[in-house]
């Protein structure tokens, strides 16, 4: 069964928000063909069984669970520090806490409570003003352009700051990165102002192909680095803060004060070790194929005669990118759900409207399942998706 462009009878307006969300997740996870893994689903028993099966390949499951960060958590910290080439690393339950602690520690060391960062950076957009309300820090913005700040903008900042936070990649701007030379110049400009540099590297793991450098080479540019264990690696939760040993020791003291000294964290640590072993080596392959998928989407949208569209960046910097269309976000989300339910194909997931009225955006992630999609598969799935967008959902 397929939908007609003029069919307006399938818009999902029934049920509570939780019920509608459950329907979307069930549709995406039930799809036979998708570009990346689905959202967490299934039973607790099923997820524990999968974790035990996969975890046996990376850790001795006959060993005891961790207590306040020893055992498997300490092993994960050592593995992370080795991968990033830093002296030490500390596990945190969330990236929000890790970065709060990092920037608070640097404020104490530099004597400046001001952090320079992009207004689209995660601490500004997605943490409810925690830098100011929890840690007593202020922020200064170097640019409003949807891209990382340049060296010139760092040098010309009108206010002093003690730390420069660079989100790599800048997710809300389209998972965009500077070039390697641009990154080095921006870091050097911060040093000229006697500022330390912190990398918000929630997705740093997949940046190496774009820069053409190893993870230790990238991390070496910064004074501290935060990485996530679930955004790209498929872990359950958790993050790490990496840097000099004395800095990490201080961060651990603040981690305790912030409530991050958790009694046991072995499930998250085990899942993170699985991700480092299984997903990390494949990220360059995912990033390369994302360029193929993005090119096929551009070609398909042009062939379909869509009045305006944008695939951003045109050539993705990582394995994630944005797609913009001139249609209603709810109608596009519903079209994707119907395609997953009716055809078993999940091309797009949630659409939002973060830009001008009449435009909608979705984020596309290409991971292991997406490697099987040839350009013609992408164009075919796109055509079937557009056929399900109702006439009233189009702004043309």
From TrEMBL:
This is Threonine aldolase. Residues 1-21 are annotated as: Disordered. Its cofactor is pyridoxal 5'-phosphate. Transmembrane segments: none annotated. PANTHER family: L-THREONINE ALDOLASE, L-THREONINE ALDOLASE-RELATED. Signal peptide: none annotated. GO terms for molecular function: L-allo-threonine aldolase activity. One of its GO terms (biological process) is glycine biosynthetic process. Pfam families: Beta_elim_lyase.
